[in-house]
Protein 1
Amino acid sequence: MPPHKPYAFVTYRSQESAQKAHFHLNGGKLMCGENGVTLYLSFIDSGSVFAPLPDGLLLVEDFVSAEEEVQLMAAIDWSSSNDEVIAQKALKHRRVKHFGFEFRYDNNNVDKDEPLPAGLPDVCLPLLERCIKDGYIDIMPDQLTVNQYQSGQGIPPHVDTHSAFEDTLLSLSLGARTVMEFRHPDGRVVPVVLPGRSLLVMKGESRYLWTHGITPRKFDMVPVCDLKSSTHSGHDLETNGSLTLSKRGTRTSFTFRKIRPEPCRCAFPSACDSQGPPAPLPPSPPALPSCPSDAARLEQEFVHQVYDAIAYHFSSTRHSPWPRVCHFLSTLTPGSVLVDVGCGNGKYLGVNPEITAVGCDRSSALVQICADRGFNAFVSDALSVPLRTASCDACISIAVIHHLSTQERRLAAVRELVRLLKPGGRALIYVWAFEQEHNKQKSKYLKDHNGKQNLIKNTSEGSQEPCEYPSKCSDGACTPTDYMPVTDGKLSVHTNRTAFNTQDLLVPWHLKEGKRQEEKLETSPAPVFHRFYHVFQQGELEQLCAQVSQVKVLRSYHDQGNWCVILLKEELH
Ligand SMILES: O=C(O)CCC(=O)C(=O)O
Ligand SMILES: [Fe+2]
């Protein structure tokens, strides 16, 4: 519910009639006096609003006294360090402070070898001992994240990284009441009212499989009885009276966790960054598609599924925004709306704080990573972005269009970017270049990873140093794969960090499951995934763009192994 907009709750007798109403009315125009307004409907499945708590979740009310609450709040000195300045920049939505170990929002993990000088504040110890005595935990936590939310702020839905923390998470709520939503991968949503001074214990399924998050808003819908006693969800509308709005205030939470020394072996591998999805069999190389449905299938298997499978590792190699992309973003006037189509882990979404940046990506795992980092992102195919025509001042498409497997689909992707632009708006497109040498200069991709020396350096230091040209780098995994020539029209597998000899190919990604390189060498070989690429020849991107009406190429250039264009959408005459 956007602030200051009128809204109403309407109850339908059956789900079918609710769906019908939604179908016919949502987005419809209404006359309101002289003015036309648009009516939007959201569908709330009341069945799930009052569902039982997720398995493994426990809410302990009045866990701390009002005095303890004051002491705990007083123990956090928000002015003492500049770390919240950094965190705030990344998180936007709340203040945060870490004790014991820093939780890093860039890779959603902790550096287990680098404890913070300050351990957990002493004032927490009696409470934690009480948690052990009461059987909520059986081992003392060694990491604390304190979050402070003003009214209107929240935390995106996430699962606390399995490989970082042990099973049980404790979240102590201080100050104002809020509602935390738990979401199951099957779509069930369970809102849980968290009163001040309560302790939420997340174990098992509720910790490993369900996401938890707090929607940023100023009011929550809570059962009336929750305002009086502070009982949690599980009420039934019919038998327990009605819902009411509860105004949010400032809430401070203390989340206690235990660092996990070994990889996670939970029973939920689909949500587990230690276990990941099962490694695919080495592909019997597919052929170039000959019809649209083949193309979609090829991309499904050799692009979408791969990004979902490698999302965590991929994201951990994507730190540094490319300078010329940043420059483009810095030229946008304050208040501009930018959409990053194929935003990956969102590394460009926070570059220019003066603009409104929204990202979308085909990989829900990458979108989740964006959300965890506090960015606006949604799952979408680059060929059909659910945003209004002419709604954006700028679009970027960085290292995306080369993943489309036919000329028609690459053209459709450019058309879609142009459709989103307002007249006068600009789009920046980067695609991987066939020519990795330009003006007699080898691209960094070839240079950085060609030499044996570099291989040795990376390996011996266990370096996870991000490559500056990451679309081609599987993070120092310098073992070349066997080159497979094109046979029977099949796609060849590229040898990493060598020149290309064909335009359509599969590029291997050596998955490292959050492990250090030297550890990895001693264990089984990293699973290899293959991504489809169409690498562009000089002039090809411009030719593609020339087929799109209402747009002109303002600039085109080669940037370290990529062909790049800046497009301008022209006014319609
Ligand atoms: O504010 C809360 O209770 C939850 C915080 C949280 O989920 C986190 O920091 O991972
Ligand atoms: Fe969390």
Note: Residues 292-316 form the longest helix (25 residues).
Protein 2
Amino acid sequence: MTIRTLDDLLAEGVSGRRVLVRADLNVPLDKQTGQIADHNSASAPRHGTPDGMRIADDGRIRAVLPTLDALVRAGAKVVVCSHLGRPKGAPDPQYSLRPVAGRLGELLGAPVHFATDTVGDSARSTVEALADGQVALLENLRFNKGETSKDDAERAAFADQLAGFGEAYVDDAFGAVHRRHASVYDVPARLPHVAGRLVLREVEVLGRLAGEPERPYVVVLGGSKVSDKLAVIEALLPKVDRLLIGGGMCFTFLKAQGHEVGTSLLEEEMVETCRNLLERSEGKIMLPVDVVAADAFAPDAAHDTVAADAIPAKRLGLDIGPETVAGFAAALADAKTVFWNGPMGVFEMPAFANGTRGVAEAITKTDAFTVVGGGDSAAAVRALGLDESSFGHISTGGGASLEYLEGKTLPGIAALED
Ligand SMILES: Nc1ncnc2c1ncn2[C@@H]1O[C@H](COP(=O)(O)OP(=O)(O)O)[C@@H](O)[C@H]1O
Ligand SMILES: O=C(OP(=O)(O)O)[C@H](O)COP(=O)(O)O
């Protein structure tokens, strides 16, 4: 099995050819409403649009620049596609990629032509009008049911339309390679396909962790995509020495231990799974002993640190508490390999950012090989003003890197193999 690379495609010559690039431009956005405090503007300048959405962190846009720059310099007509957020298969203005087109143009130093639909009239005319070395961005892939459909025929019909925009396909969307979606899985079957620079680099570095990581190997999990990640824990447990669970992930486990979690993020139908995992974990799983519980999901909500087994009924846990941070730091201290995915709390609100900051700092203090994965986790590192160079690798994919570490064959990687 081999995977051809962007360099192979460039060697064939792409001048004047239309190249379809699947990128993961799923950047964190916030609204200019003051709802989320602008605590990170010093380290991460925001890029806004008149319609009110701002890019809180442009790391995922920057990550795809090496691939796009190379194609532009080689004179390709570059058609970029991506998802943003989780719209439900129909246009939804809050998930428009328009602000991303603006920022991508600034970073590339040339305007990016934005199509207001994904495969409709606007996309067709935008792609048609591209000159050599120009870049177009299509509107959010997930505005179309076919992108994420479980029905093969529905995905295929959408993939046929998308593939019509390229003579070759480059996958540089590492953050989405674990998704069996039309643009990731079905389009490469229809076009000559290669891996972009970002995908290659991610696979190379994460390969170090997927093989024989130096021990102790500690994995830290948080964030809010609870059901996605619970599925991964089972496979990871035998490979790790310790698994520290915070963020929105921890409440389903606390519930499984018999504690009430108030109105915290909870996957009721996964409680039994968590109970089984705890029973079989041989003591490897560490959960919070205290949490910061608030009376609302808001930056100015009243909040207190409470014991993890005493969360008041009307409150929700928005961060791990200081005792937990100290315990997690101790569990990390002798690690030789660390993988961290998912913020420990709602770090976007300063009142609930201390857990994420504390655990991130503890990770940087180890002499381990450290990898941070995930759009929001990487954004948190930058937003909290942490030194990016003190981590071994900052991956653009959270779910993708976790599934890669599991040793799974990922649909988006398999689709590139010849
Ligand atoms: N206790 C919590 N309750 C609700 N949301 C949380 C909690 N802790 C963290 N989060 C949220 O999780 C989000 C990131 O989750 P996720 O997408 O899983 O991470 P990543 O993008 O790094 O993979 C952040 O926006 C953060 O606000
Ligand atoms: O943000 C992403 O993943 P991550 O939060 O696991 O890093 C990717 O863009 C994939 O998005 P999805 O989890 O909605 O498929």
Note: Residues 24, 26, 86, 175-176, 179, 225, 374-375, 397-399 surround 1,3-bisphosphoglyceric acid (ligand 2) (CB under 6 Å).
